[in-house]
């Protein structure tokens, strides 16, 4: 039975990846950080929290000794490093914490692999945020990087360190440059889930109006469950490498707002410009979305669109879910949760 460590099991991708690996017969060691109250709702939604082959391990990403002890004890075949301070907005407020967790967190694991067993395969959760102020359209593996946030900078360090350990020590370290991927398990601070949860609340009369920042940002949004399959395939490949996972379609935040309201049976039209732009429910004339400047970022990533053809050619990976299906799935999940009186 293969053993895999998944850091960040309490997050969106950690939960989906654990589900996939358990289905494939792996013994999964999911790491979480100690908090005063447990945060296992995603594993509960997937029904895997009591799986006999799932082991939850307390682990501090910022502690080198902790990485060495954990890897030495478990002796895994594969490590998927998904844990991170992953919210771009917060990284502007907490740049050093982001560097420690998101950047050095990967270094601690790579060092432990080098010391304990260089045959352990390593996946690093890299990101399209590393392209930032984009230097080419669409973005692919050899597009130059230009990160626009402390988060993007920290991820770039971890990305290059993975490549450096591959080249220096022959470690099977692969880096997945994943474009935005969403799901009903997405955290509510990220824009898609914030929108679908608010749309559900507006539909049910629990909220009057949704507040957003930059509506013009364009993102390449895919479904998280499709993307964790790509992570798995990267560690089964013959050679370690860098792969872009994306859908090759880009839409604005404004488009996603329209799509989500439509999914709940509400038609909206946009009026006004810049900070005065609003979305009006065409049936009632009520304002259901307005701009709040506090959601604007000091520096923005304007346009992301990825070219996943390398992953398709080498791994046979392709996204299976389009944006309309993804948005509808998220709206329906949030309507269900809000109707039942709870929402995570
Ligand atoms: P989430 O924010 O949902 O999950 C992040 C995980 O990291 C959670 O388990 C979280 O724990 C854990 N974590 C955060 N801070 C710490 C810390 N100080 N110590 C230990 N654990 C910590 O992210 P996703 O699942 O969406 O993303 C997974 C990875 O992929 C991340 O590294 C992200 O940066 C990267 N990525 C994500 C993309 C996306 O669109 N989703 C795209 C490209 C890359 P807790 O639950 O306790 O907060
Ligand atoms: P992103 O995702 O920064 O791309 O990082 P997020 O959903 O936070 O923002 C996407 C775009 O929407 C704009 N936006 C808002 N964003 C949030 N969160 N809240 C708002 O109210 C709002 N209004 C407009 C943002 O400015 C941005 O342009 C995600 C994370 O998962 C990272 O960890 C990952 O690496 C990248 O995706 C790829």
From TrEMBL:
InterPro entries: GDP_Man_deHydtase, NAD(P)-bd_dom, NAD(P)-bd_dom_sf. Coiled coil: none annotated. It catalyses: GDP-alpha-D-mannose = GDP-4-dehydro-alpha-D-rhamnose + H2O. Residues 5-330 form the NAD(P)-binding domain. Its cofactor is NADP(+). GO terms for molecular function: GDP-mannose 4,6-dehydratase activity; NADP+ binding. Keywords: Lyase, NADP. GO terms for biological process: 'de novo' GDP-L-fucose biosynthetic process. Pfam families: GDP_Man_Dehyd. Its EC number is 4.2.1.47. SUPFAM superfamilies: NAD(P)-binding Rossmann-fold domains (SSF51735). Belongs to the NAD(P)-dependent epimerase/dehydratase family. GDP-mannose 4,6-dehydratase subfamily. Catalyzes the conversion of GDP-D-mannose to GDP-4-dehydro-6-deoxy-D-mannose. This is GDP-mannose 4,6-dehydratase. The gene is gmd.
């Amino acid at each position: 039975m293969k053993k895999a460590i998944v850091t960040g099991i309490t997050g969106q991708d950690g939960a989906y990846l654990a589900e996939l690996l358990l289905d494939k017969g792996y013994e999964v060691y999911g790491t979480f950080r100690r908090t005063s109250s447990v945060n296992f709702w995603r594993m509960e939604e997937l029904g895997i929290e009591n799986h006999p082959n799932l082991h939850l391990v307390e682990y501090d990403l910022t502690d080198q000794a902790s990485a060495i002890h954990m890897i030495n004890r478990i002796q895994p075949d594969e490590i998927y490093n998904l844990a991170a301070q992953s919210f771009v907005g917060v990284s502007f407020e907490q740049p050093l914490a982001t560097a420690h967790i998101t950047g050095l967190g990967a270094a601690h694991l790579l060092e432990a692999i080098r010391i304990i067993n260089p045959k352990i395969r390593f996946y690093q959760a890299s990101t399209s945020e590393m392209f930032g102020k984009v230097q080419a359209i669409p973005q692919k593996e050899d597009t130059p990087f230009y990160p626009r946030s402390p988060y993007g900078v920290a991820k770039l360090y971890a990305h290059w360190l993975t490549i450096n350990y591959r080249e220096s020590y022959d470690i099977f370290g692969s880096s997945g440059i994943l474009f935005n991927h969403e799901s009903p398990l997405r955290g509510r601070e990220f824009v898609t889930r914030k929108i679908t949860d608010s749309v559900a609340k507006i539909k049910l009369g629990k909220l009057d109006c949704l507040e957003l920042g930059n509506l013009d940002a364009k993102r390449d949004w895919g479904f998280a469950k499709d993307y964790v399959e790509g992570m798995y395939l990267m560690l089964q490949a013959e050679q370690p490498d860098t792969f872009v996972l994306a859908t090759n379609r880009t839409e604005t935040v404004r488009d996603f707002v329209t799509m989500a309201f439509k999914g709940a049976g509400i038609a909206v039209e946009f009026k006004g410009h810049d900070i005065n732009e609003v979305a009006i429910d065409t049936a009632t004339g009520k304002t259901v979305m307005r701009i709040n400047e506090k959601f604007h970022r000091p520096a923005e990533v304007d346009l992301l669109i990825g070219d996943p053809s390398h992953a398709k050619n080498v791994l046979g990976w392709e996204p299976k879910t389009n944006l309309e299906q993804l948005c509808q799935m998220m709206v329906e999940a949030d309507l269900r949760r809000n109707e039942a009186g709870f929402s995570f």
